[in-house]
Design goal:
By secondary structure, the protein is an alpha/beta fold. 44% of the residues lie in helices and 20% in strands. It has a five-stranded mixed sheet. The protein has a five-stranded mixed sheet with strand order 13-12-11-14-15, with helices on both faces. Strands 7-8-9 form a three-stranded antiparallel sheet, with no helix packed on it. α3 packs across α4 and α7 packs across α14. The radius of gyration is 23 Å and the shape is globular.
Length: 402
C-alpha cells in the first residue's frame, strides 16, 4: 500500500464524515419509524432512499439503544416470501424529563418517546422566583418523577428545560426573563448538577415548534410559525425542519412590536406593544376590573365564559381578535405554510378561534390552528427540548440509560 493510500485510511476527515452520515441516517430512520410505524424496513428504505442493508443496520442500532422495537404482529408481503416484521417506536421503556418555568409556577413532567405526558406536577412559586429557589424546586420535582419511573423499570434519557424570554440554547443559559427578573442564569449547569442527568435548554416557543413538527399539527409542513401568548408573548419560526435561533438564540423576541388598535401602556414607554396588549397578566387584570374573577389565573375567566358570563366572553373574544392581528402581522413578514397559536381563548372556544381567523383574513384563515397539546402544552414544551435532540441525534443516547 502506498504512503498516500495509507494516509487516506488514517485521516480523521473521512471518519468524521462517516459519523455525520451515520448520525443523519439514524435520525432519518427514527423519524420515519415515528411518522409511519409500525412500518416495514423495506418501506423505510423506500421512504428514505437508504439501502435495505443500511436500514437494517440502523434499525439494529436503534433497537439496541431501546428506541425502536419489532411490532408484535408480522405483516404478509404481497409475494410468497416470509412476512415482514415491522418496527415501531418503543414507547414503553425510555422517557425524557421536562421542566417549564412560567411566571406563577413551574411544570415538571415525564414524556414518552411519542411526546405523550405520562406524569407531571405543577410547583407554584409561593416562596419567590429567585433562580436558585425555582431551579432547586424544579430539580427536586423532576427528581421525584424520575425516581418513580426508575422504580417502575423505565429509564430517563435526560431533561429538557423551556421558558419564555431570552434563552440561549448553546450556552444553556436563561439570559433574560423580564417578568421573573432573571439575568444570565446557568440553567443547564444548575439542573445538571442537581439531577445528574444531561440537560438541554431552549425558549418555549421554539420548543413547541419542534413538538408540533414531531408529534403535533405541523407534521409535514415545510414552514411553521408558532405564536405563544401567555404571560410572556413570543414567537418561533421553522423552515425545512430547522428552527431559526439567530445569534445567541435571540430570534422570536416580538414583545415590543406595535399592535394596531392596542391601548395598553407598555413599560418601554409606548402604547400597544404586543406583549403588553396580549399578556395573560393584562387579560387577568381586565377581568378583575370587570368584576369577573379574582387572582391571576386565566382559566377562571374561561370558566366564567363557559357559564355564560357575557363580560368574560367579550374579554376573551377581544384578546383572540388582537392575537389574530399579531398573527396577520407575522404572516406578512414570514409567510409560513402553517401557523400554530397557543392562546387560551382560541385553544378552548370555537368563537375565539373564529374571531382570531377573521382578523387573519379568509385567504390564510385555514392555515392557522391552535396547538393540539391543550392543557399539556407547558409540560410538552419542556420535554420537547430533550426529544428534539434525541430525534436529531439518536446515536448520542447512552447504552447505560439513567
Amino acid at each position: 500500500m502506498s504512503r498516500t493510500a495509507a494516509a487516506s485510511l488514517t485521516s480523521p476527515v473521512p471518519r468524521a464524515a462517516d459519523r455525520d452520515r451515520r448520525r443523519t441516517s439514524s435520525s432519518v430512520v427514527l423519524r420515519s419509524v415515528l411518522e409511519h410505524g409500525p412500518v416495514a424496513r423495506s418501506t423505510i428504505a423506500r421512504l428514505t432512499g437508504l439501502s435495505p442493508a443500511s436500514v437494517t443496520d440502523h434499525c439494529a442500532r436503534l433497537a439496541g439503544l431501546g428506541l425502536i422495537r419489532e411490532s408484535d404482529a408480522p405483516r404478509r408481503s404481497n409475494g410468497a416470501g416470509r412476512p415482514h416484521v415491522p418496527v415501531d417506536v418503543d414507547d414503553g421503556r425510555l422517557l425524557v424529563g421536562g421542566v417549564h418555568v412560567a411566571v406563577p409556577y413551574t411544570t415538571v413532567a415525564l414524556l414518552d418517546l411519542r411526546g405523550r405526558v405520562v406524569a407531571r406536577r405543577r410547583l407554584r412559586h409561593t416562596g419567590g422566583v429567585e433562580p436558585a429557589r425555582v431551579l432547586a424546586g424544579a430539580a427536586d420535582g423532576i427528581g421525584a418523577l424520575v425516581a418513580g419511573a426508575r422504580a417502575a423499570g423505565r429509564g430517563v434519557l435526560g431533561i429538557g428545560f423551556a421558558a419564555g424570554g431570552w434563552v440561549d440554547r448553546d450556552s444553556g443559559t436563561a439570559v433574560r426573563h423580564p417578568l421573573l427578573g432573571w439575568r444570565d442564569v446557568p440553567v443547564r449547569d444548575v439542573l445538571g448538577a442537581r439531577t445528574g442527568l444531561p440537560v438541554r435548554v431552549d425558549g418555549h416557543a421554539r420548543a413547541l415548534v419542534n413538538a408540533e413538527r414531531l408529534f403535533g399539527r405541523a407534521r409535514g409542513s415545510r414552514s411553521v410559525l408558532h405564536l405563544f401568548a401567555g404571560n410572556v408573548v413570543d414567537a418561533a419560526f421553522a423552515t425545512n425542519d430547522e428552527v431559526h435561533h439567530g445569534p445567541r438564540s435571540q430570534a422570536g423576541a416580538i414583545a415590543h412590536l406595535p399592535l394596531r388598535g392596542g391601548t395598553e401602556p407598555c413599560e418601554c414607554g409606548r402604547t400597544g406593544c404586543l406583549q403588553a396588549e396580549l399578556s395573560e397578566r393584562t387579560l387577568c387584570r381586565r377581568a378583575r376590573a370587570a368584576g369577573i374573577a379574582d387572582g391571576g389565573d386565566p382559566m377562571r375567566l374561561v370558566a366564567a365564559a363557559a357559564d355564560g358570563d357575557p363580560r368574560a366572553v367579550r374579554l376573551l373574544l377581544e384578546r383572540s381578535r388582537m392575537t389574530g392581528r399579531a398573527v396577520g402581522l407575522l404572516l406578512d413578514v414570514l409567510n409560513p405554510e402553517t401557523v400554530i397559536v397557543t392562546e387560551v381563548g382560541a385553544m378552548r372556544r370555537k368563537d375565539c378561534l373564529a374571531a382570531l381567523r377573521d382578523e387573519v383574513g379568509a385567504r390564510r384563515a385555514a392555515d392557522v390552528v391552535p396547538t393540539g397539546f391543550g392543557d399539556s402544552v407547558l409540560a410538552v414544551a419542556g420535554g420537547a427540548v430533550a426529544l428534539d435532540a434525541l430525534y436529531r441525534d439518536p446515536l448520542a443516547v447512552s447504552h447505560e440509560v439513567n
